[in-house]
Structure formats: structure tokens, C-alpha cells
Design goal:
The structure holds two protein chains of two kinds. By secondary structure, chain A is mainly beta. Helices cover 0% and strands 44% of the residues of chain A. Chain A contains no helices and nine strands. In chain A, strands 1, 3, 4, 7, 8 and 9 form a six-stranded mixed beta sheet that branches. In chain A, strands 2-6-5 form a three-stranded antiparallel beta sheet, with no helix packed on it. Chain A is globular, with a radius of gyration of 13 Å. Chain A starts with 8 loop residues before the first strand and ends with a strand. In chain A, 35% of the residues are buried. Chain B is mainly β. Helices cover 0% and strands 50% of the residues of chain B. Chain B is globular and about 40 Å long. Classes of the chains: A mainly beta, B mainly beta. Chains A and B meet through strand 3, strand 7 and strand 8 of A and strand 5 of B.
Chain lengths: 109, 120
């Protein structure tokens, strides 16, 4: 059960856009439209940001958007803000199990 | 308000048994699958186990299958994770997470506060 592959870190200046990729296989990301994204600040529990590839829970700013192409899902943060600095994890359904990504640290310069 | 309040955990010796609990409130508990996710110190998130709303189906990561047991009491709105044969690799913060449907977890929209298990 290998973790989904994410870049270790991405960074951007306030107001810029950053995109985090999440690469899996046809058994997980490529085979199901159940990819979710989580934001985690240090010492805190994760927070759901995107579910079912593209959907935002209520209360999540529309600066956060999700997409998928083949076996790679992506999270884009537009108009980067200081409070967006955190770790981000993707997660995919993989048929009777779930697999998380390796995690990406987002730094706001 | 939807809440998940976790209890259990602490410093434990290798081997033996430990049970984590997660008490839910603010939603119709048996309408949602529940999952345990863990995070080892300085590491990423790892899916551990899921139980569907009716408690008829359970799923486990290979790393814990045969050692951990997930269960739920829908009359008390509590989900449990019984951890047997613990090893140092089980040292982590464990999160209880509410799913988005009864049949499948799909995503976790509400997370517990986390409880630390240290095996040493």
C-alpha cells in the first residue's frame, strides 16, 4: 500500500497561485473520483478542503480548487494568503481501503 | 455542533491491548462511516481502519490487519479501535474521523482532537 506521491514542498508569494500534485495509480486516483484534500497546521487536526475531486465543503474559501487528470489529482490555491501556510495531504479511495499522499509543505514567502 | 471527542491512549508497553474511544455528537451517528487515521511523529497521515454506518463492514490497512479491531456502538454513538500486539511502529497520534456517507467513508469532514499512543 504505497502512499500517493506529492511534492515535498511548494512556495509562493502572497497573491500568487500554487498547485500541489498527487500522483497515484489506476487502482486509486485514476480509478475513482473520491480524492480529498486536507490542510494541517502544526499541532492541529487536519481539515477537509476538497472532496470528490472538485467539491469544497461549506466554509472553505473558493481560492481552493481541485482537479484530476488520469492518475494525478491537483489542488490549486489561488490568491495565496499567509494563513494558507500549512501541510497539505491528498487521499484517495482505493477499493476497500484508502491511501494518503506523502504530504506537501506550502510556504508563503 | 458536530463533535468527536476522543479518549484513551498514553504510554504503553509493547504487546498487550489498548482501546481508543471516540464519542460522537451533533449528527445521526449510524448514518455515517467512521475511520481511524494515524500520524507518527514528524510523519504524514496514514489510513488505519474504516467501519460503515451499520457496522456490517470493516476495512483495515495491511499494517494493522489482524492486530487492530474497529467497532462501533450505535446506541451509544461511540466508535472504538482496539489495538493488540502493539509495536514501536504504532506510536502515533490517532484521529477519529467522520465520513460522508453510511456505506463508504469517502472523505473525512469532521476530525477528533487526536490522542497520542506511545509504545515503549
Amino acid at each position: 500500500q504505497s502512499a500517493l506521491t506529492q511534492p515535498r514542498s511548494v512556495s509562493g508569494s502572497p497573491g500568487q497561485s500554487v498547485t500541489i500534485s498527487c500522483t497515484g495509480t489506476s487502482s486509486d486516483v485514476g480509478g475513482h473520483n473520491y480524492v480529498s484534500w486536507y490542510q494541517q497546521h502544526p499541532g492541529k487536526a487536519p481539515k477537509l478542503m476538497i472532496y470528490d475531486v472538485i467539491n469544497r465543503p461549506s466554509g472553505v474559501p473558493d481560492r481552493f480548487s481541485g482537479s484530476k487528470s488520469g492518475s494525478t489529482a491537483s489542488l490549486t490555491i489561488s490568491g495565496l494568503q499567509a494563513e494558507d501556510e500549512a501541510d497539505y495531504y491528498c487521499c484517495s479511495y482505493a477499493g476497500a481501503r484508502y491511501v494518503f499522499g506523502t504530504g506537501t509543505e506550502v510556504t508563503v514567502l | 455542533e458536530v463533535r468527536l471527542l476522543q479518549s484513551g491512549g498514553g504510554l504503553v508497553q509493547p504487546g498487550g491491548s489498548l482501546t481508543l474511544s471516540c464519542a460522537a455528537s451533533g449528527f445521526i451517528f449510524n448514518n455515517y462511516a467512521m475511520t481511524w487515521v494515524r500520524q507518527a511523529p514528524g510523519k504524514g497521515l496514514e489510513w488505519v481502519s474504516t467501519i460503515n454506518g451499520p457496522a456490517s463492514d470493516t476495512f483495515y490497512a495491511d499494517s494493522v490487519r489482524g492486530r487492530f479491531t474497529i467497532s462501533r456502538d450505535n446506541s451509544k454513538n461511540i466508535v472504538y479501535l482496539q489495538m493488540n500486539s502493539r509495536s514501536a511502529g504504532d506510536t502515533a497520534v490517532y484521529y477519529c474521523v467522520k465520513g460522508m456517507s453510511a456505506g463508504s467513508w469517502l472523505a473525512g469532514d469532521v476530525w477528533g482532537q487526536g490522542t497520542t499512543v506511545t509504545v515503549s
